[in-house]
Prior knowledge:
The complex is a heterodimer of chains A (about 140) and B (about 400). Chain A has about 140 residues and is of the alpha+beta class. Chain A is about 50% helix and about 15% strand. Chain A has one domain: Sufe protein. Chain: A (Alpha-Beta Complex), CATH 3.90.1010. Chain B folds into two domains: about 140 residues, Alpha-Beta Complex (Aspartate Aminotransferase, domain 1); about 260 residues, Type I PLP-dependent aspartate aminotransferase-like (Major domain) (Aspartate Aminotransferase, domain 2). In chain B, the strands form five sheets. A seven-stranded mixed β-sheet of chain B has the order 4-10-9-8-7-5-6, sandwiched between helices. In chain B, helix 2 packs antiparallel against helix 10. The longest helix of chain B has 21 residues. The model of chain B has no long low-confidence stretch (mean pLDDT about 95). The chains are: A alpha+beta (about 140), B alpha/beta (about 400).
Amino acid sequence: MTINEIQDSIVEEFSLFDDWMDKYGLLIDLGNSLEPLDEKHKTPQNIIEGCQSRVWLNAEMNDGIITYQGESDAILVKGIVSLLIQVMSKHTPEEILNTELYFIDKIGLKEHLSPTRSNGLLAMVKQMKMFALAFKSRK
Amino acid sequence: MIDNIDIDKIRSEFPILKELIYKKPLVYFDNGATTQKPQCVLDRINYGYEHLNANIHRGVHYLSQKATEAHENARKTIADFLGAEKREEIVFTRGTTEAINLVAFSYGEAFCHEGDEVILSVMEHHSNIVPWQMLCERKKMTLRVVPMNENAELDMDAYKNLLNDKTKIVSITHVSNVLGTVNPVKEMISLAHARHIPVLIDGAQAVPHIAVNVQDLDADFYVFSGHKIYAPTGIGVLYGKEKWLNAIPPYQGGGEMIAQVSFEKTTYNELPYKFEAGTPDYIGSTALAEAVNYVQQIGIENIAAYEHALTTYATKRLLEIEQMRIVGTAAYKGAVISFLIGSIHPYDLGMLLDKLGIAVRTGHHCAQPLIDSLGLPGTVRASFGIYNTKAEVDIFIDALKRVVIMLS
């Protein structure tokens, strides 16, 4: 699936719920089922400090494809980390760099990416693209 | 005690309490961050601009005289409210932060030298840490920190040991914004004075909730913010004993704070104008006086008793929740409850409570050294004001129980 196809499928999944608490319930489930980040990747270099919560992000490239792994200490943030990884992982650096992330806005979770929340998510999106840029220039 | 408070009348005076948040009635438990404003304060702001707007202290014309009078009357109101000896001891600032910066800079310039020490406590807000750190960097001084015990009460023996001949000033919060602890500031001041060391008290979390008398405390400096006591943002107060305010240099230069200006030499105005450079916030000062009058009409003792009962009730109900951990269990506490539930992250609790119309603060509450010393990721904080009710506490507890199930 292309990045946009994945984004669209997430938007569809969330559209099944009109109640806020159900949407958050789904986010919590996603957070709980996110594969924990290997302790060896929880390094100071991989940490993205937010004012409210912390996010770790690790990226690796094999055969031109980037795989992201991440985690957070807050479960709602972890749920969004899980969505971001679903969308961005397993793509080429070019695909990632050319992506416009619209799904968060469409599923009504934009507030989590607002700079005023300072939960590390906005910095995480930036960091994902920075990794892609670094891998691209290394190719 | 609750007989003295007409809660329905009070609630009707705060327009924002009628707001719906995500179609639910607002439950505002973030009063430690800022308070809502009663209609009389909002009206006073409008009245100022509609009827009394002219720059003060410099006009011969009618409106300027009237505006000056209103600003100076506001100063008198604040002086009386704090129990200050003279109105000249009240300096208007932008808030607590600016007031502390003023003292840290000006007192530091006059009295501090390399090797000297400043004493703070572990439970200070960043605004009562960073200005002193900047002073310490500038003058090559050392910060000394009073620790606390497991009940979140300051360790008074440690404090006594920290006081020494190198100590140049002590700066301590009256009430902790995270833990709610009411510190024994009168005793702390008296211990410092025995060594001729002046003390600044950060009253931001005290003045809206408990009676404060600066002469009774014998505080050398006492500071607070208007917006935490039902007044607008951008106005605050520095109380300083006349002898100290006279002994320290101005903080900012500009209009209003001068006596004579020439390119060779400028002489400064008398107190309190020496510290009020530029056009003062005379709309803010009068609205602050209005808020203080409002608080005094209800009665600060009545407010303290009402909020104490509410805090006690909320604490009892919070403890119904399994794995509840109240952070800050001092014997004498203000209207603040910080807590954590099991291993649930405070951000998650706060976000879900928000969706249910409940405003609480989460995180480190601008007291990172304190939160780090407790080894916590942050806390959830409910902080109360005069318009909060037991019914709101019940809504809050039900909501909390609901989100805990979701997050467990």
